[in-house]
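Changelog-adjacent note: as of this version, every example in the card shows the full chain rather than a window. The one below runs 224 residues end to end.
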Amino acid sequence: MENKVIETIGLTKYFFDPVKFQVLKEINMSINHGEFVSIMGKSGCGKSTLLYLLSTMDTDYEGQLFIHEKLITGKKDKELAQIRSENIGFVFQFHYLLSEYNVLKNVMLPGMKLGKYSNKELEHRAMEHLKTLDMEDQAMKMPNQLSGGQKQRVAIARALINDPLIIMGDEPTGNLDKKNSDLVFDIFSKLTQENNQTLLVVTHDNDFAKKTHRTIVMEDGRII
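Full-length structure tokens:
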């Protein structure tokens, strides 16, 4: 298996509103298979912008982005959507669970979109992930019946449903208290140790970052 999950060469990004402003400057970085990496830096240093580029959701940049040692830069939107579905799981600060579906269906949704597994198989996989996260007894509940920590665990199960190459988190513990933050960290840590899952997490939480394998520190659009 190729070792580099993500690599960037000279990744540079400008914002043009209201004036031209360079938000990322020549970012060269790589993340290896099975690594748990955190990105830290003050607000406005460009860390969420970087994550957005790495996730292929923003394609307006200079430089090159490789996923699994394949060049992604310059690919069409439809192709990128497929690459995202197959390779990247997302966990955000806000869980983004759909209120009209129960927990099980929320976890299954990205799998239904990808269309790789039958609904029956997806249901089985979703239950297995919920079991791993100690949430199988909540499968038939609606999101509004869950606590904040439980919602974030459902969001993690959903991120895992397509066996992603990498899970990306944008402040995934930002809305949680210490106890639930620690719980989410432990879940991520276990995924790395037991499943060799690759994780890249933007965080403001020093304690969280300290416990990851490696921390990328950013300042003024650069990696320092």
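Structural remarks: The first strand starts at residue 4 and ends at 15.
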